[in-house]
Amino acid sequence: METEVIQSIYKQLKFNTMKKLSIIGMLMISMSLMLSSFKKDAGNYISFEIDYSMSIKKLKTSGHYVRVNGKINSKNFSEEKTSGKNTLKMCLINFKDYMTLAGIRKYLDKNNMRPATLKELLVFGAKYPSFIDENHSVFALGSNMKVKDNFVLGNDGLIIIKKDVHVVSFIPYIEKNGFGQRELGMIIETNNFNSSCYFLAFSCE
Fold first, then answer.
1. Any idea what DSSP says for residue 129?
2. Residue 176: exposure state from Cβ atoms within 10 A (0-12, 13-18, ≥19)
3. Dihedral sign of CA atoms 159, 174, 28, 195 in order
4. For residue 160, which of 143, 168, 144 has the smallest C-alpha distance?
């Protein structure tokens, strides 16, 4: 009798465990399919909800970033929206080869899309943390921090010092660095982006 009870309990535990594993597996597959649906080209949209009243400071915290560029704040990104809620059609754009900034903007315009802002990038980072890995960075070309300085970035990636002072733009991005840490940073607005770069965008329709 005791043997039958033990076997019955074992079968039930085994069934529940397999059921849980099956559910977990389905959730992982579902997440994988959802991610793949918006990380390719224009037209592969998913719904994206955002509350613009959330502060940049709070959004940075919700993303659980280990490394954060301290200059990413409401003072340096004062043009960000500060009120209203919206449901947008989101897409991640990736090019298989090097692409110029002008070419990326032209592609977005042609497909009736606009680049993401800093707040939209931060919401994306908080909602889809599993997408951020060491193989790529996600950029928000719709926001930038402008500073006056005397250097420019050459086509070879090297900094060139100029005699005259001019405006230099920095673009925000999120990624997981080589140490496996989630990072929120900025780079100088460059002329070229390689295939590891993804661009968060939204439909203008």
1. G
2. buried
3. negative
4. 168
At position 103, the amino acid (one-letter code) is G
42-203: CATH topology is Mannose-Binding Protein A; Chain A (3.10.100)
Number of Cβ within a 10 Å radius of residue 114: 16
pTM score above 0.85: no
Collapsed DSSP state (helix, strand, coil) of residue 205: coil
3-state secondary structure of 141: coil
Q: Where are the beta strands (DSSP E) in 15-112?
A: 46-51, 67-68, 85-94, 99-100
Each residue of 176-199: pLDDT tens digit? 888 888 999 998 887 689 888 999
User: Which pair of tokens denotes residue 10?
Assistant: 């074992």
pLDDT tens digit sequence for 128-143: 888 777 678 999 999 9
